[in-house]
């Protein structure tokens, strides 16, 4: 997930996306980074909404009890690590996805 938020130390703040179920990728995906869907926030309450293909999921933002750090081991030394990001919240999508229906005119 791409997020432009940073804390006071300039470290990016990321969020965990928690889904119930299984995401199936199209054939031919090599297992590398892939675009899964579009994440947006709507309304005054800033409710997260995730669009996956022809489905939409409404979620909620939940603060984690304990923040987590995403760290990267530096290759030049076996005891040095770099903090890549801090995770303080998760986006929880626990309801069933709703289909996005488009109106298609029938030929007469």
Automatic annotation (TrEMBL):
Keywords of the record: Cell cycle, DNA replication, DNA-binding, Nucleus
One function term, GO molecular function aspect: DNA binding
Pfam families named among the record's database cross-references: Ctf8 (PF09696)
GO cellular component: nucleus
GO terms classed as biological process: DNA replication
Record's subcellular location: Nucleus
Database matches in InterPro entries: Ctf8
Entry annotated with the keyword Lipid metabolism: no
Family: Belongs to the CTF8 family.
Protein's UniProt name: Chromosome transmission fidelity protein 8 homolog
Organism: Loxostege sticticalis
